[in-house]
Amino acid sequence: MFKNIQEDIRAFQERDPAAKGPLAIFFTYPGFHAVVWHRLAHWFWGHKLFFIARLVSNFARWVTLIEIHPGAEIGKRLVIDHGGGVVIGETAVIGDDVTIYHQVTLGGVAPSVDSDAQRGQKRHPTVEDSVIIGCGAAVLGPITVGRESRVGANAVVTKDVPPGVTAVGNPAQVVLPKDKERAKAFQAYGTPTDGQDPVMQTIENLRSQINVLLDRVNDLETEKSAALAARDDETDGDARPRAASAGDA
Questions:
Q1: CB 100 within 8 A of CB 80
Q2: How far apart are the C-alpha atoms of 137 and 153, rounded to whole Å?
Q3: Do residues 162 and 146 touch, judged by C-beta distance below 8 A?
Q4: Which of 63, 108, 103, 99 is nearest to 87 (CA)?
Q5: Model pTM greater than 0.90?
Q6: How do residues 123-148 score in pLDDT, each as one tens digit?
Q7: Is the CA virtual torsion 22, 23, 28, 33 positive or negative?
């Protein structure tokens, strides 16, 4: 437990330039407090002390404004930056070295009218290692956000996100990184500053494909014209000897 706390503090220091030192993080960072309280609540949950687990998580929610269900599985060095309004559901799974910003929801999409049928079922996302989720993003359903991927601010994600890409928009669209090595570096709020709007990217891709097709059509027209000209020359060549033979007769 103490080792996890030390690692969590170091993670905040590495990813938050405003952090002034371990003591400031330990005493004043609600995101850090929420993670520590969750580890305790999750221990009670794992030992089937569900009521105590919910009491601990409810207290943590009250003092941090961050709601993490005690059943959620959280890896090492999770950083919840700013934190207010974060909601993490019961069956969510979060890997190591993940960063989550304020107002993020890791929620379910199944209707609540049939709760009995949903108990014990996977309803919330799996977030793999080294993912960054920007503020206001909603990642919904039993989907997977791949390792080292980024979810931009206010994105709404309802489908799997492949590893190493950025998902932005509502509904979220995947933007391939221009520089894959640079994309692996820490990216605040999970939002690329040099990324292209996915809609514009799609339009540009379609425009490029249309230009390729137009070039091909022009090539075919040129080939057709050349073939017709060659055929006309052959026809004229055959007609001249026949005309000469008729004159001799």
A1: yes
A2: 5
A3: yes
A4: 103
A5: no
A6: 999 999 999 999 999 999 999 999 99
A7: positive
76-109 pLDDT tens trace? 999 999 889 999 999 999 999 999 999 999 998 8
% pLDDT > 70, the chain:
80
Specify the amino acid at residue 123.
R
Task: Look at residue 3 and tell me whether its pLDDT is greater than 60.
Answer: yes
Closest Cα partner for 166 from 182, 188, 190?
190
**Cβ neighbours of residue 184 under 8 Å, at least 6 residues apart?**
130, 148, 164
Q: What is the 3-state secondary structure (H, E, C) of the chain?
A: CHHHHHHHHHHHHHHCCCCCCHHHHHHHCHHHHHHHHHHHHHHHHHCCCHHHHHHHHHHHHHHHCCEECCCCEECCCCEEECCCCCEECCCCEECCCCEEECCCEEECCCCHHHHHHHCCCCCCCEECCCCEECCCCEEECCCEECCCCEECCCCEECCCECCCCEEECCCCEEECCCCHHHHCCCCHHHCCCCCCCHHHHHHHHHHHHHHHHHHHHHHHHHHHHHHHHHHHHHHHHHHHHHHHHHHHC
In CATH, the architecture of 2-193 is 3 Solenoid (2.160)
